[in-house]
Inverse folding.
């Protein structure tokens, strides 16, 4: 039985954090669950009237987490806008830069956010479930390895992109500078070390997670499984690519639903609006919006590391391909619909990114001096797309013939996953709430684990994000009264009450 | 005394500098930029201070910790959204409530990051030698390049607060 409709207050500045509302039906079972995070406002209005060339720098400041992804999608949108094809050296430099970024970003997510759930265990006290807990359990040397990987990644991003935080490098038709042989050697050398680090990380996952039946059962449990469509960028051989290719979407059964060029995204993707959320809910246009439900008949899709692996036929580098095969063999074939397997997929992507980084560093063209073609045509409209760590990222610009922006549309990685995240939260909640009995112990973490797998980056939308985000879960009865309010501060506190 | 470029040039650490004043924020997000503005306001005022680096950044968590490596003491200037009166200036320690950027939702909070760095052997300021100067913000969710009037009006007070902290460390 559906619950009565409850109007949900938007998150106030004072609260300033995410809120999950769980609605019970009259039998006391979960009817609905929603994650709400505030969205930044006025970006399009801010951009209109500015020169399009400003966008790689402006958009990289939307987000403090993946500025490189915005920078790259924006730069590619400018290529399209000015109708200019970058030379091979520029494309390779961009992809190498981007591979370094993805490898570094995935490192941080695994060790700081995902790892603690598995290494320490999902039921470990919150004060132990962090990267310090991992170090205590696995060994001191991990701290140095993780920090070195991050340091090398940031150093090379600065070396190639010119600045450590917000790169100022991508330009329409190429990049603003190339690399010399000495720099190339350093990039290759660091890349080889990064491959070893990625192998070490996968071994850690094998030993601790896959070696524990309880964890494997958790990954494959119903509470963390749903069957949606999967999106990812693939190369000409249908292998995962972060920088360029075509968008491929496969169904919950693994069969190809559609393949399209990113510039045509609006023919395939539509956006649903809910009154209670600032963020839109993209879905597959041809399947249609059927609500927060999974299955072949629902247009919901995911765009995550696991989705990218599901949407592809394999990985383009040898070590990652071996791990790709092993994951699907272990988890029962393609596609894998278990949300928590996203962490494993992220590590396989990390390995691929490091291998690709070295491959490109060894490419004879990488030190070429032709790294830019000057645009000569009038700009009008352009779409640029990359695989951000958190999902497919699309930038779409319209300008007048002087190149002044008249309209801007962005679909950020996490927005793709907005509806599936809510679905995951609801499923996780269902496992701990039955017939009015609410298992408050562990509820916050189980619900958080459900969306932590997506590493939602609402930084494009807000500063308050999961992980260290203060989080409130409100459980309401069918008549709208608050039954429980759980707040994630360490340790989690539980208050019961009866308030509207 | 070290040479002090304008902060918009992202100054790097001078070899002899022991003190860091780091403004955190997003220059495009209204009151969120206040930490950057305070540091820019401090540029001419810090000319007489030896061994002080002024810098801007955006990141919390691990990246913020990595930024502090090598310094003996640090003042971090940042916006905060705690429900107080916009423009209120407070001095916090890293183990108090997080400001806008001193925590990171994508990795760890500053306390954890500092502990991790120390375990890895990084030379970091002790917790007592890190101060957060927090300016209560009114709007950090709307793209614009100005602060709200009450927050703009607090910049000088925040800068004076930083100078007072530096004075005690002299």
């Amino acid at each position: 039985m559906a619950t009565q409709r409850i109007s949900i207050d938007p998150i106030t500045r004072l609260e300033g954090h995410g809120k999950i509302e769980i609605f019970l039906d009259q039998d006391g079972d979960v009817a609905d669950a929603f994650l709400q995070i505030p969205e930044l406002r006025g970006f399009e209005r801010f951009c209109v009237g500015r020169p399009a060339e400003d966008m790689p720098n402006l958009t990289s400041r939307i987000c403090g987490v993946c500025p490189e992804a915005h920078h790259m999608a924006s730069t590619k949108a400018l290529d399209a806008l000015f109708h200019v094809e970058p030379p091979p050296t520029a494309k390779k430099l961009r992809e190498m830069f981007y591979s370094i970024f993805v490898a570094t970003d995935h490192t941080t997510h695994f060790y700081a956010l995902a790892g603690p759930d598995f290494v320490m265990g999902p039921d470990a006290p919150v004060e132990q479930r962090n990267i310090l807990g991992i170090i205590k359990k696995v060994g001191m040397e991990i701290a140095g390895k993780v920090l070195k990987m991050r340091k090398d990644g940031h150093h090379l991003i600065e070396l190639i992109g010119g600045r450590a935080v917000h790169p100022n490098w991508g330009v329409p038709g190429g990049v603003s500078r190339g690399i010399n042989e000495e720099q190339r050697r350093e990039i290759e050398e660091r890349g080889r070390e990064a491959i070893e680090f990625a192998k070490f990380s996968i071994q850690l996952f094998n030993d601790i997670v896959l070696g524990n039946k309880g964890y494997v059962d958790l990954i494959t449990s119903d509470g963390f499984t749903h069957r949606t469509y999967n999106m990812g960028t693939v190369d000409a051989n249908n292998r995962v690519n972060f920088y360029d290719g075509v968008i491929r979407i496969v169904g919950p059964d693994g069969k190809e639903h559609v393949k399209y060029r990113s510039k045509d995204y609006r023919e395939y993707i539509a956006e649903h609006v809910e009154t209670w959320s600032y963020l839109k809910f993209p879905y597959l246009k041809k399947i249609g919006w059927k609500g927060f439900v999974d299955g072949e008949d629902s247009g919901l899709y995911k765009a995550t590391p696991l989705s990218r692996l599901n949407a592809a036929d394999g990985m383009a580098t040898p070590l990652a391909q071996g791990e790709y095969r092993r994951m699907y063999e272990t988890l029962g074939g393609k596609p894998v619909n278990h949300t928590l397997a996203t962490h494993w997929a992220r590590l396989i992507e990390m390995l691929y990114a490091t291998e690709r980084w070295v491959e490109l560093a060894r490419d004879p063209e990488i030190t070429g001096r032709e790294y830019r073609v000057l645009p000569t045509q009038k700009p009008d409209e352009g779409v640029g797309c990359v695989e951000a760590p958190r999902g497919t990222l699309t930038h779409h610009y319209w300008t007048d013939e002087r190149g002044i922006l008249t309209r801007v549309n962005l679909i950020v990685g996490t927005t793709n996953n907005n509806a599936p995240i809510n679905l995951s939260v609801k499923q996780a909640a269902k496992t701990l709430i039955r017939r009015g009995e609410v298992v408050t112990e562990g509820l916050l973490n189980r619900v958080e684990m459900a969306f932590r797998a997506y590493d939602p980056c609402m930084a494009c939308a807000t500063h308050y994000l999961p992980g260290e985000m203060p989080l409130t879960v409100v459980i309401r009865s069918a008549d709208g009264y608050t039954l429980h309010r759980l707040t994630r501060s360490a340790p989690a506190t539980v208050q019961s009450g009866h308030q509207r | 005394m070290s040479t002090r470029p304008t902060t918009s040039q992202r100054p790097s650490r001078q070899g002899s500098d022991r003190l860091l004043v780091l403004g955190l924020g997003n220059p495009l997000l209204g009151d969120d930029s206040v930490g950057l503005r305070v540091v820019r306001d401090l540029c001419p005022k810090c000319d007489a201070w030896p061994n002080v680096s002024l810098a801007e950044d955006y990141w919390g968590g691990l990246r913020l910790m990595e930024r502090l490596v090598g310094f003996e003491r640090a003042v971090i200037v940042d916006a905060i959204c705690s429900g107080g009166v916009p423009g209120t200036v407070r001095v916090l320690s890293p183990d108090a409530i997080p400001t806008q950027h001193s925590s990171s939702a994508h990795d760890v909070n500053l306390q954890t990051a500092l502990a991790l760095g120390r375990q890895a052997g990084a030379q970091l300021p002790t917790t007592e030698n890190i101060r957060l100067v927090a300016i209560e913000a009114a709007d950090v969710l709307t793209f614009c390049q100005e602060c709200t009037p009450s927050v703009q009006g607090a910049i000088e007070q925040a800068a004076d607060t930083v100078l007072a902290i530096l004075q005690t460390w002299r």
